[in-house]
Amino acid sequence: MAKHHVEQSPKLDFKNLDFVKFGEYLNEYSIVDKQGRYLHWSQLKWRVPSKEAENIWYAVKFRRDQAKKSTGLFDKNGNEFHFCIHDSLEPKLHKIVQLGAGKVAAIAGSQASGHVQQNYLVSSLLMEEAITSAQLEGAATTRADAKKMLEEELAPSTPDERMILNNYRLLRLADNRKQEPLTRDLMLEFHRIATHGVSENENIPGEFRCSNDIYTNRH
């Protein structure tokens, strides 16, 4: 059977690199895309503007090079194998550790395994809190379906699932930025995530209301 050809990624050319644009791409792009996918060049180039694809790839590759970890393993040409662990990968690694009955932990080392397990535990607790909070607010979905959506990064199919996803993203953001002061911009970011796609009135996610039309009534 013929081997599937893997397209080689472009090599970084410093002579023709637009460093101003490169800096902008570094601010905009990360190790993974917005859906948490670790894309190869052959996949990334179709998801970005074609004229900017190579420069965007250089920025992504640079970020990956900064985050890569050494394995101590080399190919026949002396090139070392490296790897990156990003946030969306950690729950999957924890499952591998469980399925491997500790064998992966022995390979990766107890310190790496402990870090993965700690992050997975936090992620699991945030999922549980997001689901419970949404259900208390009236979300009609089963815990099993909601957890599957979050763990497998599935798109929400109902307004109730959207509420749960928003809760989870809000909790993740709060956890990641818990050391920062609670500024106006951060509060608006919390509001944008919490109300995205679920607001039943004319509120605009991430913005303060422009009027003071508030009505109350006795029941």
From TrEMBL:
InterPro entries referenced in this protein's UniProt entry, alphabetically: Fido-like_dom_sf
Biological classification of the source: Bacteria, Pseudomonadati, Pseudomonadota, Gammaproteobacteria, Enterobacterales
UniProt name for this protein: Filamentation induced by cAMP protein Fic
